[in-house]
Amino acid sequence: MKRNKCRIVRNAIPAYLEGDLPPDELRLVEEHLAVCSSCRAEEALFRRSMNALDAFAASEKESLAVPEMWNAVALRISAEQQRLSRRVAGIRIGAIAAAAVTAGAVVLSLSLPPQNRPAQRLEKPPALVAKESQATPKKPRFETAKPNEGNTPPSVTRARDYRKSNVKPGTERFRRPFHKHPKENGVRDVPRKSTNPQAPKPIQQPQDNQEMGFGGPELLAAVREMGESLNPVPPGIAQAELHESSMKADQKAMEALEKVKMAALVSLTAEQSYEIHYDL
Q1: What does each C-alpha distance from 137 to 55, 126, 133 come to in angstroms?
Q2: Cα–Cα distance measured from residue 70 to residue 64, given in angstroms and rounded to the nearest whole number
Q3: pTM over 0.70
Q4: Residue 206 domain-assigned?
Q5: Fewer beta carbons within 10 Å, N or C terminal of the chain?
């Protein structure tokens, strides 16, 4: 607590020496200085420092108080102000004179008759311009290089003829240029017809189960009859249980049939796709 009070009093010592403290704080500082020796020593040190600074400032003020120097500074300031005012006035006069000369030139050019005005640039008639543009065609910006057939080396000619003569019959379709995918050109993805008479015909995908040889109801009835013949129903089973077991058997038979049909469709689709790509 005492340390905090000492710190507060030492921070207030400069204002105490200057006489700027309010009455209640002044009374607290005086009471503390009366009982604290360290704070009194601090106050004495501050007082001596302030007296030394006041004495130094008074001596410097007396040495710098030279009337001639201040008069010279005032004269320099007034001369600079007069020079700036004359410069601004000259700029204004020059701008006004330039504006007057420009306005006079415009009025004079408008008041002259047409024959005294400066000659205007004569433009060529459109017909002459069209003739000149047709007589001198524009050269292309970039010229494409033309093949020089006369300077082809004999080795290149022989290699080209050898490649053409060694094409085996039946392999011409593998040497056709690469075509873009039909979807990129906006064409429907339809397989092209084969030009080779010996190529096998593509297998058409069946439209329903009858073309595949799978008669849905007929096959299901045959499977049911086969199951009943192999597993006869005991006489003690009720009609409801018999119907339920029959429904479960039908469901299993239908699931097996669907699996067989899916496998057959996948096989036929893969074979047809292979034949189409082979034909292309």
Answers
A1: 100, 17, 6
A2: 10
A3: no
A4: yes
A5: N
Ranges of H-type helices in 231-280: 239-279
Beta carbons within 8 Å of 190's beta carbon, 6+ residues apart: 182
Answer yes or no: do 46 and 87 share one domain: no
Question: Are the C-beta atoms of 272 and 202 separated by less than 8 Å?
Answer: yes
Q: Has residue 133 been placed in a domain?
A: no
To the nearest 10°, report the CA torsion of 154, 157, 158, 161: -160
**Of 201, 203, 205, whose CA–CA distance to 279 is shortest?**
201
Distance CA 268, CA 280 (A): 18
Give 219-256 pLDDT, tens digit per residue: 666 656 665 555 555 555 555 666 677 777 777 878 88
What is the arithmetic mean of pLDDT over 201-218?
52
Q: 127 lies in a domain?
A: no
Residue with tokens 């995908």: 205
Question: Do 108 and 46 fall into the same domain?
Answer: no
Question: What's the angle, vertex CA 46, arms to CA 40 and CA 51, rounded to 5?
Answer: 125
Report pLDDT for 241: 65
Task: Answer yes or no: are the C-beta atoms of 212 and 261 closer than 8 Å.
Answer: yes
What's at 252, amino acid-wise?
K
What is the length of the chain?
280
CB of 27 within 8 A of CB of 7?
Answer: no
